[in-house]
Every structure is written in structure tokens, then in C-alpha cells.
Amino acid sequence: MPARGDATPTGKIEQDYLYDKTVVCPVCNSKITVKVVKASRLRIIHRDTDSMAVYKDINPLLYDVWLCNHCGYANLQTLFHKPLSKSQIQLIKTNITARWKPRDYPQSVYSEAIALERFKLAIYNATVRHAASSEIAMLCLKTAWIYRMMKDETNEVKYLTWACQEFEKAYETEDTPAFGMDATTQMYLMGELCRRTGNYARALRWLGEVITSPSAKQTLKDKARDQKDLVLEMMKKETT
Ligand SMILES: [Zn+2]
Predict the structure, then answer these.
(1) What distance in angstroms lies between residue 41's CA and the mean position of ligand 1's atoms?
(2) Where are the domains of the chain?
(3) Number of neighbours of residue 49 by Cβ within 10 angstroms
(4) In angstroms, what is the span from residue 74 Cα to ligand 1's centroid?
(5) How far is the CA of 107 from the centre of ligand 1 (A)?
(6) Residues of the chain whose pLDDT is less than 50?
(7) DSSP category for residue 26
(8) Beta bridge partners of 47
(9) Ligand 1 geometric centre to CA of 61 (Å)
């Protein structure tokens, strides 16, 4: 295994996939430099049943949180420029900026530990400004994925559980599913997160909804059936 930062068998290093970009912070209006992954170069090699993607040479997840080191505002890059209300900006300034001490981040590649720190800051930002449940859910899911890469199962399950609760809240309270998902895809994801966190009764409920939904695509129904079989197997094991 090449060390991170070394050339991989494809001859590319992690840094080849990254470039710096200047953006304006929506909280303090400072110009900041963020790292962006060249999406067109990414080659997916595997996708887990809860959507975590593994790519060749680089893990783009490590760069997914943008952070303003002037005021402490942090969010997923796709949500970074989403308009914030005056009261949300005030909440961030009072609760985060007032205590913010700029962090030292490397110029080149980010470690998993650094990515975790940035995701946790983004989760803290989201709770402080009372962000939508779907936003907190996605941040928690991606944090769980970083723990999965670090093989820290206890924390992975903790964040998957939190993500599942927030996705369920979002399903009840938000008009449309976030992050480009349709309703049945979100149901499948909630079922799979319930399965992974040992909440089998709820897993069966959500996966069952997908299987019987008239609007779910056949490939999604097939995936839901596979995961339902796994749940039933796991339940059988627990009772024997
Ligand atoms: Zn800022």
C-alpha cells in the first residue's frame, strides 16, 4: 500500500486531484481559500449499501467540509453558500465566532483526523443555527463514513444512529427529500441505517415501504429485498 501522498499505481497522487478556490464566507464576508476535488477525474471503485463511495487514489469526503477560519462557519461544500437568515448569522457569531480560535490546517492533503474535526465543526454549526434535519442527517452520515474508514465501529454506529434519527425527522417534517434523493431512496437509506444500527423492526418497516411502493424503481426494490433478507437473517441469529 502506498502511503498517502505517495504516487499510486496509476501514477497520480492525492494532490493531483485537488485545487484551491477562493470563495466568500456568507457569515463574515471574508475571502477564504478552500480545497476542491476535481470531480471529473474521480473513478469510483466500490459503493457500500448505504451509499458510501470509495474512489481510486483519493477520498473526496475528506475535503467535503469548507470552513472559514476567520469566523468558524463550516458546512458541506454544496450547502456552504445556501442563504442564511439574519438570525442564523447572529447565532453563529454569538456562539461560535466569539470563541473562535483559528485552526492550523495543512496546505496539502487532509488526514482523516482533520476531516473529522471539520465535520464535527460543521455539525456544531448546523445545530447552533437550527439547520434542517436533512442537513444534520447528511453531516452525521458522512462523519460515520469517516469513522468506518478509520475502523472505529463504536463511533460509526453512534453517528449512523444520529443520522437515521435526523433522516426520519426530515421525512416527517420536510416537504421534499434533500440531496437529490427521491422519497423511496430516502426510505431505503433509513431502512439500511436502521439495519446497520441494530434497529431491525424499523429497518423492516422502511424496507417494506420501498418494496411495496408503486413509485420505487425496480433496482431499488431489489436492493431493499436483499437488505430485508439480511435483517431477517440477523434477527434469526439473535434468537438462536
Ligand atoms: Zn467567515
Answers:
(1) 30
(2) 1-101+109-132
(3) 14
(4) 8
(5) 19
(6) 1-2
(7) T
(8) 53
(9) 22
